[in-house]
């Protein structure tokens, strides 16, 4: 199939060149311009056969979830039990186990009721506050995982890590 395509393209190119060389400048400017345009098609086809078709490399965007985060590459801050930020929602406070760009994990008993969607605020160790909207992703023993509707910035998490290391040193 590849050889047949090369032969057909070479024949087409040969015919175009033969018309041009036999008739020459008698063809007129418009016809000569059209012949040069037609000449590019078989020439490009011939060149394409000499370069192997390789599949496109996978893009990083294939790993991006619907919320815009790259899966398993999001930054996460884990807190020691002695030094945790507080998440407040619906007048109740919960201790934060860890926080990432996409969500937060808090300590809560299985009997603690949560709506499917919640609004709240997290008071960070660094002194910052995050107001958020989230959905309940899952419940595990003594913990509830929320996914933020709008991911938080990495800069907040970097500040939080710096504040944790500073509190550990003092």
What order do the helices and strands come in, and which of them pair?
Layout: H1 2-23, H2 29-50, E1 76-78, E2 86-89, E3 92-100, E4 103-107, E5 117-123, E6 129-140, E7 143-148, H3 154-169
Antiparallel strand pairs: 1-3, 2-3, 2-5, 3-4, 4-7, 5-6, 6-7
Helix pairs in contact: 1-2
TL;DR?
The protein has three helices and seven strands, in the order ααβββββββα. With 170 residues, the protein is an alpha+beta fold.
List the uncertain runs.
none
What class would the helix/strand composition place it in? alpha+beta
Shape: rod-shaped
How large is the radius of gyration?
32 Å
Mean pLDDT: 81
**Count of β-strands:** 7
Strand order, main sheet: write it out.
2-3-4-7-6-5
Number of helices: 3
Query: What's the helix-strand series?
Result: HHEEEEEEEH
Beta content comes to: 25-35%
Brief descriptors of the model:
170 residues, six-stranded antiparallel β-barrel, 3 helices
């Amino acid at each position: 199939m590849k050889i047949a395509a090369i032969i057909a393209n070479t024949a087409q190119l040969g015919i175009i060149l033969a018309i041009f060389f036999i008739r020459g400048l008698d063809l007129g400017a418009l016809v000569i311009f059209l012949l040069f345009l037609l000449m590019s098609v078989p020439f490009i086809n011939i060149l394409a056969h000499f370069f192997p078709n390789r599949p496109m490399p996978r893009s990083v965007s294939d790993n991006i979830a619907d919320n815009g985060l790259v899966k398993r590459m999001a930054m996460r801050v884990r807190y020691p039990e002695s030094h945790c930020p507080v998440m407040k929602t619906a007048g109740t406070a919960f201790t934060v186990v860890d926080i990432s760009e996409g969500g937060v994990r808090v300590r809560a008993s299985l009997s603690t009721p949560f709506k499917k969607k919640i609004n709240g605020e997290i008071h960070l160790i660094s002194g910052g506050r995050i107001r958020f909207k989230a959905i309940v992703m899952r419940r595990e023993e003594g913990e509830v995982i929320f996914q933020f509707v709008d991911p938080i910035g990495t800069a907040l998490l970097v500040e939080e890590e710096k504040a944790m290391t500073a509190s550990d040193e003092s």
